Amino acid sequence: MRIVSADTGGALLDDGYNPIGLIATAAVLVEKPYKTAKMSIVKYADPFSYDLSGRQAIRDEVLLAMKLAKKVKPDVIHLDSTLRGIPLRQLDDPTIDALRISDRGKAIWHELSKDLQPLAKRFWSETGIEILAIGKESVAVRIAEIYAGLYSTKWGIEYALKEGFARIGLPRYMKVEVREGMLWGESLDPKEGGLYGEIPLDVEGFEYQIYPNPIARTFMVFEVKKE
Amino acid sequence: MRIVSADTGGALLDDGYNPIGLIATAAVLVEKPYKTAKMSIVKYADPFSYDLSGRQAIRDEVLLAMKLAKKVKPDVIHLDSTLRGIPLRQLDDPTIDALRISDRGKAIWHELSKDLQPLAKRFWSETGIEILAIGKESVAVRIAEIYAGLYSTKWGIEYALKEGFARIGLPRYMKVEVREGMLWGESLDPKEGGLYGEIPLDVEGFEYQIYPNPIARTFMVFEVKKE
Amino acid sequence: MRIVSADTGGALLDDGYNPIGLIATAAVLVEKPYKTAKMSIVKYADPFSYDLSGRQAIRDEVLLAMKLAKKVKPDVIHLDSTLRGIPLRQLDDPTIDALRISDRGKAIWHELSKDLQPLAKRFWSETGIEILAIGKESVAVRIAEIYAGLYSTKWGIEYALKEGFARIGLPRYMKVEVREGMLWGESLDPKEGGLYGEIPLDVEGFEYQIYPNPIARTFMVFEVKKE
């Protein structure tokens, strides 16, 4: 099974470890044995003006996943929304009302589906590829999350080289390491069976530190400053 | 404390990683220090004609646990149903109605208790051994789950030697390894404190691979083919 | 950020692994990188006459945290009650009624807040330090829990040296080790990013064993006897 997935994660943090805004949406191609990405692409957001309601993230994820899917022709796209694995092209208003999610979640999806549902329908009729709202059950979604953390870390390093300093909140229970010519990231949850990722990194002249976010248990902070 | 427990797990998977049916019910005897089984027995099901509602699994577990208990005389039997640790012999209709479980769960238990409750009552009056519906709180239940995964893996290997190939979905966050003359299995959750199991295995002529189930996060797949 | 936190944990267990009563409340000072305590103090309870409703624990925690805070002047106090991070000094009756917690939780807080709320208000006006009901989101609360486990273990060793034997239930997924001149403890959950603690220990003449509590998955037992 060849799966494309996308997820948004990694936040610029203020002094009190609260998120200012999200940084990166990553789309990944995941193939058997489903432990890392065969290919990844990224779309950066501006964390200083970010809509934290979730609308922006979902829209970015659908569009970026479709972009990668057009190139690599996967069997399926996994979306990071846990709606019983329903195909996005079937997500019309009555279907949304019947979901067992919060009223706020329904309001967001009523708004989002206006353009995303016809988009998914056209994409499916042209390519045969379903976009499934499978969410946290998908290993591919988790790998996309790890890549979003890697790209956010890279953004943080480049930001610090310009501005002197950055404090990045990584996605849930993952860590990153700067290695020879690359950034390495892996899940801290051994129950996931060894999920990891890596992206190229060819900059120098910075110091970094990883430690637990004191007000968000199981989330790590990547802190970087220019040397 | 000497505990007998039973659990059902391990599923034959189709090409899309969906379960076709469950494979094995294992009963185990667990003694201090409660990290593995001192003894285990198995009852295999036919995964190609399996009732996935849960009824068959619970019935198989009660009967297999009682079979092992008659032999090893434990202090207590732990059942994999999380009903506040209530004794099965007390599970009559008014008690079931008063439980905080789903209506579907109640319907299943009303049906199951018809023969299991008198059975448990007779077993208790003859042996003094309680059958407790303690469920996921019990370490013995988790060890039984690991053994169900081991026996399912063994079933998969033997199936592949006859039919050429098998894909087994293991119980939650556990892995298995083929070692000299045995199958080894262990929990992937370090919070559980190092739970593991092993069963004899004396067949050869197969290759295997373990990897995450892409549509069921924290569940691993054991895939085996004839050499 | 310099954080003081307090938590109660570690229970004396009976033969059936059920808690008789809690043993220790620990208060800790946690500083960046938020992996262990820079300083810790303890208040022991009498496990043989302990109010397991939670009232005693919360009261002990607030008082012990304030005691340590007076000495070390932290930026904030984190309390192990998950009430959306609300400041304790604002926890009056209408605020408690508006919380999304159980009726039993509300009753307990209505009673507790009678003296704790004015106390927190005075403490805040004198020191500027907020006492936040942040609960399980706080890494400092988890470190306090690990220290409560360490002090409970120490209590158990001293009890066994007098009485011959003790069986201690540790706080959730942590283990302890007796090392040269100290007790070492660490979280068994790697998702937490490597939280640990240590306290001095200068007694000898005992044997110990650590193993999973068979009726409380992910909780370990520390068993100690006089040599």
Briefly summarize what is shown.
Chain A has about 230 residues and is an alpha+beta fold. Helix content of chain A is about 30%, strand content about 35%. Chains in contact: A-B, A-C, B-C.
Report on this structure.
The structure is a homotrimer of 227-residue chains. Chain A folds into two domains: 135 residues, 2-Layer Sandwich (Nucleotidyltransferase, domain 5); 81 residues, Immunoglobulin-like (Sandwich), CATH 2.60.40. In chain A, strands 1, 2, 3, 4, 5, 6, 7, 11 and 12 form a nine-stranded mixed beta sheet that branches. In chain A, strands 8-9-10 form a three-stranded antiparallel beta sheet, covered by helices on one side. Chain A is of the alpha+beta class and 227 residues long. Chain A is 32% helix and 33% strand. The first copy, chain A, is built from four helices and twelve strands, in the order βββαββααβαββββββ. In chain A, helix 1 packs parallel to helix 3. In chain A, strand 1 and strand 2 form a beta hairpin. Chains in contact: A-B, A-C, B-C. The interface between A and B is medium-sized, with 21 and 19 residues. Chains A, B, C: Pfam families: DUF4152 (PF13680).
H-E string of chain A: EEEHEEHHEHEEEEEE
Report the largest inter-chain contact: A-B, 21 and 19 residues
Percentage of residues in strands of chain A = 25-35%
Shape of chain A: globular
CATH topology category name of the largest domain in chain A: Nucleotidyltransferase, domain 5
Largest sheet of chain A: 9 strands, mixed
Query: What would you say the CATH architecture of the largest domain in chain A is?
Result: 2-Layer Sandwich
The CATH superfamily of the largest domain in chain A appears as: Protein of unknown function DUF4152
Distance between the termini of chain A: 45 Å
> Which structural class matches the secondary elements of chain A?
alpha+beta
Domain module tally of chain A: 2
Uncertain residue segments of chain A: none
Name of the level-1 CATH class of the largest domain in chain A = Alpha Beta
